[in-house]
Amino acid sequence: MEKTAVEKKENYQELDSVLEKYKGRAGVLIKALQEAQEIYGYLPRELLIHIAYELDVPLSEVYSVVSFYSLFKTQTSGRCHLEICSGTACYVKGMKNLLEYLEEDLSLKPGGVTEDGKFSVSTTNCVGACSAAPVVKIGDELYGEMTLERLQQLLEEHDHE
Ligand code: FES
Question: Over 80: is that where the pLDDT of 125 sits?
């Protein structure tokens, strides 16, 4: 079962033994962040602060590394993660309606996860399929010409994951 944020806080011990081996060494931040993400599944803010403190690295440096490398996740995600393209073509073609639908129907906002942990959503820059706007991405799959009906269908199809 996935740990909750509260349990994670109490569980810094595991991380501390990882950080211990990196203390005082140069160029270890990425490795330490990778190991922290392996333990906790993602890197919430309080964890980044803890890592910066323990490794004596400016928090701004930790943030810039985390935001530069896409492998780092600062938020937990649902079992099915939807990325709604917010590039110009998708914006013009009504991606906002898709977001509104998710918010109304599932109380799901960008950056959020449904209570049951099934779905999460974020917006993304142009995914390169503008002619099929608006586009939703799930994993490596692109779903174009998305309507509210198709989105509803897509959610049903992924409901059992
Ligand atoms: S703007 Fe959405 S695919 Fe290009």
Answer: yes
The pLDDT score that the predictor gives to residue 24 is 87
Residue owning the nearest CA to atom 1 of ligand 1: 87
Ligand 1 in reach of 88 Cβ (< 6 A): yes
Please choose from 90, 123, 142 the residue to mutate so as to test ligand 1's pocket, defined by most ligand atoms within 8 A of CB. 90
Residue 141 pLDDT exceeds 90: yes
- What's the rounded Cα separation, in Å, for the pair 19 and 24? 10
Residue with tokens 């270890």: 28
pTM above 0.85, yes or no: no
Distance in Å, CA 146 to ligand 1 centroid: 12
